[in-house]
Amino acid sequence: MTETDVVIIGGGPAGLEAAISANDCGAKVLLIEREERLGGILKQCIHDGFGLLRFNLRLSGPEYAERFIDEFNKRNLDSLTQAFVTDIVKNEDGSFILKAVTKEGIKTIHSHSIVLATGCRERTGKQVFIHGTRPSGIYTAGTAQYLINILGLMPCKKCVILGSGDIGLIMARRLTLEGGKILGVYEAKSTPSGLERNLLQCLYDYNIPLYLSKTVTRVFGKERLEGVEIASVDEKMNPLKGNEEYIACDGLILSVGLIPENELAEKLGVEIDPRTKGPKTDQNLMTSVDGVFSCGNSLHVNDLVDYVTESGQMAGKAAAEFICKERKEIPIQISEDLAYSVPQLLSLNEFNGKFTIYFRVKKEEEKPTIRLNVDGKEVFKKTYLFLRPTEMQKIQVDLSACNLQENSLLKLEMSKEA
Ligand SMILES: Cc1cc2nc3c(=O)[nH]c(=O)nc-3n(C[C@H](O)[C@H](O)[C@H](O)COP(=O)(O)OP(=O)(O)OC[C@H]3O[C@@H](n4cnc5c(N)ncnc54)[C@H](O)[C@@H]3O)c2cc1C
Predict the structure, then answer these.
(1) Which atom of ligand 1 is nearest to the CA of 198?
(2) Are 413 and 371 in contact (CB under 8 A)?
(3) Which of 29, 258, 344, 367 is least crowded, fewest Cβ atoms below 10 Å from its Cβ?
(4) What residue ranges in 227-337 does DSSP mark as E strands?
(5) What pLDDT, in 10s, does the model give residues 231-259?
């Protein structure tokens, strides 16, 4: 059996930084990754735009990952690649036994804390209710990206993209650069889902049309996709009858959302927030199970990798410093118009007052004011020009003067000034 202090599951940017930061705190670490190489999803993201906040540079995904892989290797940290963690059990003494399937068979690992950095997966056609046959030529945007950027294969020539999420926008540009024709990006919502900069740089710069309040309702073709049916939708995103149009194409790319990957967390009995689909955590990113930490896209879907790295750093440090003790914490309440906050709990154990909270709004808001109140007293206030659901926000406050108790009331609120 392999013995270690901290096991990190997932070798993407979150897991790599968690391993580095746990090692900085003196812990013996083991990073487990199911793929052959470290780097996670960044390996296939060859466009630039990574590291703007952390390095003030526009790096490609592999360049960003390389910086952390180099740091990981420089420290000679232990990793197991082509190893898939299938099971974790908590012992009576609070430590953990993990089982990982590897090329050499099943490996057993004993660890004192765990960082879950398993990333997220894409929603598929099955989850968006498209009627019709099941021909080839229908891909999630990430699969199409893997085919082009890693395998060097062109998935289609004339293509429709469903969903205006960032990966779909990036793939619209990528397919165009490789000689493909993008007939349009169709979005069921009345506003685009991707970042403003991706709309400009990936669609408008290439004259690729974006159609809002429209969706794909049917696919046609026996062996290979021959066309799709497009329909307008109402404000509840239900297709409207009578306005359907047929578009001939050999590719349909789905960019319809990401889901945090949390099967292992669920197996461990970690409480999941239905709003983020990731574990509920305190500000040290400890989940509801003592000694289990979560970071990166498995915690909540991030739009920028810089925030993923930041969360990896926090989780790695906290996992290394973890000592089993009675937890004292306060739930963080949010007003109705906010989609979610991370963390959801503030731990009072060894709390130094410095507190960072991430949040998203439910819908686009003009000139909203965000306040953080502790026991009715305002500790943070900021009025924004705009807040959009696609752009995660971060606020940092110092609560050391607040005399926080377990029965304190902490509320993040949005209001509109008259
Ligand atoms: C197409 C695309 C474009 C993007 N563009 C940008 C951009 O321009 N700028 C930017 O800042 N951000 C961008 N992002 C976002 C950024 O890349 C991600 O937020 C970040 O890479 C997520 O990191 P992660 O470590 O949480 O997850 P991942 O990188 O997904 O890593 C998770 C790892 O966990 C492993 N794993 C999962 N389960 C197990 C298990 N049971 N056992 C072992 N291993 C396991 C997986 O194999 C994977 O390697 C983009 C993302 C995508 C998908």
Answers:
(1) 8
(2) yes
(3) 367
(4) 227-232, 245-248, 251-254, 258-260, 292-294, 329-334
(5) 999 988 888 888 899 999 999 999 988 99
Mutate to test the pocket of ligand 1, among 48, 262, 305 (most ligand atoms within 8 A of CB): 305
Overall CATH class of domain 124-256: alpha beta
Alpha helices in 25-113 (DSSP H): 61-74
Tell me the CATH number for domain 327-418. 2.60.40
Sign of CA dihedral 395, 397, 402, 406: positive
Give tens-digit pLDDT for 37-62: 999 999 999 999 899 999 999 999 99
Q: Is the CB of 40 under 6 A from ligand 1?
A: yes
Is 1-122+257-324 CATH 3.30.428.10? no
CB of 265 within 6 A of ligand 1: the answer is no
Domain segments of the chain as ranges: 1-122+257-324, 124-256, 327-418
Q: Is 167 in the pocket of ligand 1 (CB under 6 A)?
A: yes
